[in-house]
Each structure stands twice: as C-alpha cells, then as structure tokens.
Design goal:
- This protein is an alpha/beta fold.
- The chain has 19 helices and seven strands.
- A hairpin with a 6-residue loop joins strand 2 and strand 3 (27-32).
Length: 418
C-alpha cells in the first residue's frame, strides 16, 4: 500500500486529501496554513502509516511561490517524516492543471486537493529534491537583487522621460561628442536637479563650468571642457517649458534621483550580503573560475539550481530554466522552426543568458559558437544566438557543479596561448 497526500495551498488554507494506492481517501480536510495545520497533517500521516505500513509516502503540492514554501520545508525537514522516507514534491502547476482538465467536474478546493493527490498516485512525476537551506537563503538575496535592478532600470527610464521635458537634446549631445559619461553620472544628476536653472547654467563661462564639473566629478572626466560645451549646446538647443511645468518636472527629477541613489545603495548592500554568504558555498568557486562569470551571475545560478543532484543531467537543468524548444513532428516531416517554451524558472534563465553573454566576450570557444549561430539566420540573430549559447553554457555549468571542479579551457585553446 502506498500513500499520496495532495495539498492545495493558499495564503491561509491547506486543503488536504490523503489518497491510498487503491484510490480510497481515508482523510480530507481544510486546515489553516500554519504550524498547527501542518502538524495535524503530519500526525494523520504517521497514524495511517502505523495502520498500513506504507511502502511509499508522497506529500505533493503545486508550486505557489511563497505560499507553498513553509509547508514544503516543514514536511521535508521533519525528523519523524524523514524516518518514514517521506518524499516531498513541489510540482509545476501547469502539469497538475493539464491532468485536472481531463475530468469534467466542478472546481473547488476539496476537488483540487483530490486531483493533486490523484496526480501523484499515478506516479508519473519526477522525483524532486527540495533545495537545502543555504541555497534558499541565497535565493532570497539574489531574487531581491534582480527585483531591485529591474526597479532601478524602470526608475532610470522614468528619469530619462522627464529629463527630456527639461532638456530634450542633452542625451543626444553627450552621445554625439562621444563622451565617456552618461546622464546618470552623479555630476550630471546633481547639475540637472539642483537650484541652478538651465539659463543660469548656459550663462556660466565655459572654463568655469568645466572646472565645476571636474570638481564635482573628483577629477574623473577626461575632457571636462568638451563635456561643458556639450551641456551648454544641449541647453541652447532645447525647448523651454513654462514656469509652472518646469517646477513640476524639477520636483519629479529630484525625487527620481533620490530613488536612483537609494536603489543603488540597496543593491550594493545586497551584493555585500551575497558575497559574505557565497564564500561558504564550494560551488561558487567552480562557477567564478569561468572567464566572464562574476559573483552576481554565479550566486544567481547557484541559488536557483540548488544542489545539482536534484537533476539527472544537463537537459533537465535546461528544461527547468526554460531553455528548451518545442518539438513539432508529424509523420515523416519535422519542423525546423521551433519556438522556445514559455515556462520554466525565469530567474535561472535570466542568470544563464546574462552569464553566457558575458562568457562569450572572454572565451574564444563560446565567442566562435555565438558567431556561428548568428550567421545561421537572417532575423533575430543576437537573441537566437545568445539563447543557444546559454543552452551550451548549461552543459558547462552542469559538469563543473556535478564534479565540484574548476574551469579549465579546452586543450586546443590552451595550446594556442603558448
């Protein structure tokens, strides 16, 4: 006899259905999603096991982000359940949804728990190992960092839009002069959001403005005079707003600059926390040994993969990240135009693609592979080649993590360097 526990998890409830391999359901209930509710489920499983001596016990639930986190970790870490060999599986919601859709019945929480249990009863799922605590802790940091970066990008875009109202040719003038700076340098941010009006900046003698910029930039500008000339040219060539509109734009720009600086500080603090944590994880040294893979990409990949033993091979890792393609085949014909699947772990996919984009700039093998893939198609060259390079990169990540080894370039490339 086998036991399959189906949990339909929400923010407040644990709807549970315990199904045995003969399809009988000795227990079903709606319990609170808290320690008391989970403990009651645990006690029921132990009591049933004393009666039936189960050959296999599976506790399964859908991945519902933070709602399923606590129940999954509770059942996975419990010492009594470990002695019984209980398997805790967090399954992709779309798989259970497809199974559920095969039955034309009403939808409610009790039925959902029933079909989750029934899905696991047919034992078509892949055994899953929950990530260890250190990877989960690192994941909190890396995911928050990515969210802060996305928020920073959005804020900078909003800043650019409002800066265009105030001085619409500033970005183009800086770009035209090929200056090694941007409108987001602290000096230009201060210049555009402090008390001086555009007309006052334009009236400052060029050499004085250049000295002011170099002083604010702590001597980092290679050609402050050229920058000062570009700023004054932008001011002279830009439209002027009415006094009322100018005041509103200045308020918005000031607030956005404060948010940009605050987000940048938060990201630096998270980077420090990530660096302190990954020093204790041996896989970190494996990935950072790859040219082009820094601490951020390495930490993100490790946090999302967890222990590599959760996956049988690199195709499983790629599928988990969503770096796989739908196969379209009928009879003797097979489509050559296949699309990337639209599911998987978006965080892992992001870090793998970004890391691969960095590696192909440093590693000759990946650079040649990327260029080859670019030449294969007339459209979407970069995106396609980058995703394919990321898929190749998954193999390397899998080998290094699985063998706990540092990266060594192929022998041919090593010989070419001597």
């Amino acid at each position: 006899m086998k036991c399959f526990v189906g949990l339909d998890v929400s923010s407040t409830k644990l709807d549970v259905c315990i199904m045995l391999s003969d399809t009988s359901t000795p227990f079903s209930a709606s319990l609170p999603n808290d320690l008391a509710g989970a403990s009651e489920i645990k006690k029921t499983v132990i009591d049933l096991n004393e009666k039936h001596s189960f050959k296999r016990i599976v506790i399964g639930m859908e991945a519902t982000s933070l709602y399923s986190f606590h129940p999954a970790m509770f059942f996975n870490e419990d010492s009594q359940l470990k002695q019984l060999g209980v398997e805790v599986v967090v399954e992709q919601p779309n798989k259970i949804k497809k199974y559920r859709e095969a039955f034309e019945e009403n939808k409610n929480d009790f039925l959902d728990a029933f079909y989750i249990a029934d899905y696991f009863r047919i034992e078509r799922f892949s055994p899953a190992f929950l990530k260890e605590e250190k990877y989960m802790a690192l994941q909190h940091l890396t995911r928050t960092r990515l969210q802060m970066v996305e928020q920073l990008i959005h804020t900078k875009q909003h800043f650019i839009e409002n800066l265009y109202y105030k001085c619409n040719t500033l970005s183009s003038e800086i770009k035209k002069e090929e200056l090694n700076t941007s409108v987001f340098s602290s000096t230009i941010l201060s210049l555009m959001t402090e008390d001086l009006s555009l007309d006052e900046i334009a009236s400052i003698p060029l050499d004085q403005l250049a000295d002011f910029l170099q002083s604010r930039g702590r001597g980092r500008f290679k050609d402050p005079t050229k920058l000062a000339k570009a700023i004054q040219a932008a001011i002279r060539g830009s439209y002027r707003l009415s006094k009322l509109q100018q005041e509103s734009v200045d308020v918005i720009l000031g607030l956005l600059v404060r948010e940009i600086r605050n987000l940048e500080k938060i990201i630096k603090d998270i980077d420090k926390a990530i660096e302190d944590m990954v020093e204790t994880i041996p896989e970190y040294q494996c990935l950072t040994s790859i040219p082009g893979v820094g601490k951020v990409y390495a930490a993100g990949i490790i946090a999302e993969i967890g222990q590599i033993e959760r996956f049988n091979d690199h195709p499983q890792v790629a599928k988990y990240a969503g770096l796989n393609w739908k196969e379209s085949q009928s009879g003797n014909s097979k489509s050559q135009n296949t699309s990337l699947v639209r599911r998987g772990n978006r965080y892992l996919r992001y870090y793998l693609v970004e890391a691969a984009n960095s590696v192909r700039r440093y590693d000759e093998e990946y650079k040649a592979y990327y260029q080859k893939k670019c030449q294969e198609v007339p459209k979407n060259k970069h995106k396609r080649a980058l995703v394919l390079t990321a898929r190749k990169f998954v193999r390397l990540v899998d080998v290094l993590l699985r063998n706990r080894q540092l990266y060594t370039p192929p022998r041919r490339l090593m010989e070419d360097t001597y």
